[in-house]
Amino acid sequence: MTKRLSRLGFLLLVLVLIAFVALATWEPFWADRDIEGSPDRVYTAEIVRDEFGVPHIYGATDADVAYGVAVAHAEDDFFTLQDVVAMSRGRYGALAGQEGAGVDYAYHLLDARGTAERHYPELPADTRALFEAYATGLNDFARDHPGEVRLANLFPVNGMDVAAGFALRQPFFFGLNAVIQPLVENEPLRPEYGPAIPEPRAPEGDGIAPARVIREDDDQASNRAYPLPWSEDGTLAGSNAFVVAPEKSGGPTVLVSNSHQPWRGGVAWYELVVESGEGWHYAGANFPGSPFPFLGHNEELGWTNTVNRPDMVDVYKLVLNDDGTQYRLGDRWLDLEAKTVTLPVRIGPVVLPIRRTVHRSVHGPVIVNDSGAYAIRYGGMDNLGQLDAYYRLNKAQTFEEWEAILARMDIPSTNFLYGDREGNIAYVYNAALPDRPAGPDWRGILPGDDPRLIWSGPVDYSQLPRYFNPASGWLYNANNTPFTAAGRGSDLDPGDFAPELGIELKQTNRSRRSWKLLSEAGTLDREALEAIKYDTAYEMTGYLEDMYAHLRALDLSDDPELARARNLLFTWDLTADNIGRADSLALLMVRDFMSAEYQNGPPPDPREELEAAVDHLMTHFGRIDPPMSELLRLRQGDVDLPLDGGSDTLRASTTWTVEPDGRLAVRHGDSFIQWVEWEPGERVSSRSIQPFGAATTRPASPHFADQATLFVQHRLKPVHFWREDVLANAVSRKRVTSGR
Questions:
Q1: Which residues is 347 bridged to in the sheet?
Q2: Which residues face 373 on adjacent strands?
Q3: Nearest 10 degrees: CA dihedral of 129, 133, 134, 140?
Q4: Cα–Cα distance measured from residue 254 to residue 525, given in angstroms and rounded to the nearest whole number
């Protein structure tokens, strides 16, 4: 009997080991495939790095340069590039576990691969050549550095794989995740950011349109509170952008790009300069997985972007038959498409295969939950034209050429602020706004059986809000409504735009400060504009006014310590400049009130927020008034520096990680800053800065955090745009060739 039990135990152990090995090894073999790589073409690029490690990439052709972009970026951050490639192939869960599986679910739900397969072959040959060259660069680096490859059979990739990553990520920039997630979890859709129907113009007193107050009867208008893409906590972080005409600056056309992105990860900026023998010469930054910059400048013109939040998503409730296999559309019953997909989910050393079913209707992706079946339709759906549009924008030489590319409506969202050598400035509220018929309540859940509600594409470009050379001489955006952008007398009237366009009306503190400071300025020379860009003040309105009203209403007679903290907040000078005694306490308090207003959610409990802030400061500092410079930090490896700015100030320190010592390590806020100037009769010049350095995941690199000190000091470094300047400041120079 004992021998039999022993043999049985041994057999069970063997079975467990077999199961363990199977779960530890199945995913790479399951994901293996034969791909059609790039044609037998040899790419050659020169990579010259300046004193800050920024790569300057040269090639005879644009495709040669794209190959070099991939190699240079992989040298600096191959870790993140692999995350992006895994997302682009629906395998991120094998790297990032349950969180990654959520991205893979979206990949299948949105049919990112299908979009690429349908439309990548339709792209112009020279655009596809860029993507094939870029993929080849990634493949070559993976081949030459096998010890850095984190997931077996992730490479080789081809241009279509890279394109699928674009199809996956773009919708999240206007907040599609805030619709998908609650539907998947069978939760109510969150309130919208702003109404589809424009409100009256701002009162003449302050020039700023009021924030919308959600009415009690707005419970159907529930699906527009969009956080930024890949946001970890749903807090809205944004960007600032400024452009000033020569007559207002006293000399040059000035373009200031002040993007707020995560400092690490798949949507962190990577700075580069590219130049080819085919006329591509551009300085700016891209995201991992892109062969070209998304913002910056060439010799003649430049632009920057800020995230906008138009109503781009419509939700339809389908009428299903009894067994849920068909839905009604008009007087017809159509089959509900169903496809079972496998999501790899890493848990420790094993990867579990999780099966899920994704659905589609003629409307678009469908999510089935306990409340029914909901179809989603969004602007830019099933369009891959942005891959070509960004490439063409890089090479545009005049405003007319540049705007004609935008007018194609291939880039689904983001504001564009523009400046050029000729002194022109412009702002386009770029969005592939759905061409909706007037009448229905597009803010609510729509009847899925009415075919008249299925719009076919975007509105015409002429219907978008647009500014060109306003009388004020300046333009800005800080993730706010486009109806405050150029100052009193130059701002657009919201009443001139159809309500079904769904153009946002929300304001931010950064917008209020920008509008006020720009309007009050005389000449916007470099000194004046720098003071605005690095401004750390809040306006006592909106969520901040609400926070103080809630604090004043508290009865704190039972807790003298909380009463003392509240009194300290009442002395705050409304700046996050590391000077006032109340700065640290205010920094901890403001963020959640800001987030609640941005998401149109209920404000947090003021007593709980105050208790948490006091507890944090007392626990880690032994006082409620430590200098904010001791609390808010820039940390990267051994670098540990003080930061200023708040969650919604023009000098932005937006979100942070609470470290074991109680310090707040900023992870999201001011990121890539670029300052471009076209002086009359002179060549373009620019300066830039990032929080860390060019090699953010390479601790051994001298460029792991070599820009950090300049960043915290509000200083910029030179951008070496011209080749002679690059070579004069080069610290390394090498030639890379494919296949070697």
A1: 350
A2: 368
A3: 160
A4: 9
Q: Quick check: 652 and 262 in contact, CB under 8 A?
A: no
C-alpha–C-alpha distance, residues 72 and 141, integer Å: 9
Confidence of residue 739 (pLDDT cuts 50, 70, 90): confident
User: Which phi-psi region, left, alpha or beta, contains residue 239 (left: φ > 0; alpha: ψ -120 to 50)?
Assistant: beta
Fold adopted by 190-309+384-438+457-533 = Glutamine Phosphoribosylpyrophosphate, subunit 1, domain 1 (3.60.20)
Contact in structure between 105 and 361 (CB atoms under 8 Å): no
- The confidence score (pLDDT) of residue 198 equals 31
On whether the CB atoms of residues 570 and 610 are closer than 8 A, the answer is no
Tell me: pLDDT of 22 over 70.
no
Average pLDDT over residues 655-681: 96
Structure tokens, 129: 């050549």
Angle at which helix 125-144 crosses helix 62-88, to 10 degrees, equals: 70
- Measure the CA–CA gap between 83 and 29, rounded to whole angstroms: 19
Least confident of 173-187, 321-335, 637-651, 702-716: 173-187
Pairing assessment for the beta strands 717-719 and 685-689 based on DSSP bridges: antiparallel
Query: What is the strand order of the sheet 372-378 is part of?
Result: 337-347, 350-360, 365-369, 372-378, 313-317, 445-447
Reported as a pLDDT band with limits 50, 70 and 90, residue 177 is confident
pLDDT band at 129 (very low <50, low <70, confident <90, very high): very high
| b/e 642-665 (16+ beta carbons within 10 angstroms → b) | ebbbbbbbbbbbbbbeeeeeebbb
Residue 659 exposure: Cα atoms within 13 Å on the Cβ side = 15
- Nearest-angstrom CA–CA distance, 739 and 42: 7
Q: Is the pLDDT of residue 21 over 80?
A: no
Give the DSSP letter string of 453-522: G---SBPPGGGS-EEES-TTSEEEESSS-TTSSS-TTTSPPGGGS-GGG-------HHHHHHHHHHHH-S
Alpha helices in 575-626 (DSSP H): 583-598, 606-621
CA dihedral 333, 334, 337, 338 (to 10 degrees): 20
| Residues in Cβ contact with 398 at an 8 Å cutoff, skipping those fewer than 6 apart | 300, 301, 420
**H or E stretch at 98:** helix 93-109
Place of tokens 């609510």: 444
Q: What is the pLDDT of residues 68-119, one digit of tens each?
A: 999 999 999 999 999 999 999 999 999 999 999 999 999 999 999 999 999 9
- pLDDT confidence of residue 216: 25
Instruction: Return mean pLDDT, the chain.
Output: 90
Give the span between the Cα atoms of 585 and 548, in whole angstroms. Answer: 13
Phi, psi of 329 (to 5 degrees): -135, 105
Is pLDDT of 378 > 60?
yes
**Has this prediction a pTM greater than 0.70?**
yes
* Separation of alpha carbons 529 and 241, rounded Å: 11
Give yes or no for a contact between 688 and 671, defined as CB atoms under 8 angstroms apart: no
Separation CA 261–CA 545 (nearest Å): 27
Give 499: exposed, middle or buried? Use CB within 10 Å, 0-12, 13-18, 19+: middle
Give yes or no for a contact between 183 and 367, defined as CB atoms under 8 angstroms apart: yes
Please state the domain extents for the chain: 190-309+384-438+457-533, 539-650
Identify the pLDDT of residue 294: 97
DSSP E strands, 50-183: 55-59
The size of the chain, in residues, is 740
CB contact burial 393-404 (16+ within 10 A = b; e otherwise): bbbbeebeebbe
Is residue 182 within a helix (H) or strand (E), and if so which, with residue range? helix 177-184
The secondary element (H helix, E strand) that includes residue 28 is helix 2-31
Residue 33 confidence (pLDDT) above 70: yes
105: tokens are 């679910």
Identity of the amino acid at 497: F
Token pair listed for 491: 């701002």
Q: What is the band of 24 on the pLDDT scale with cuts at 50, 70, 90?
A: low
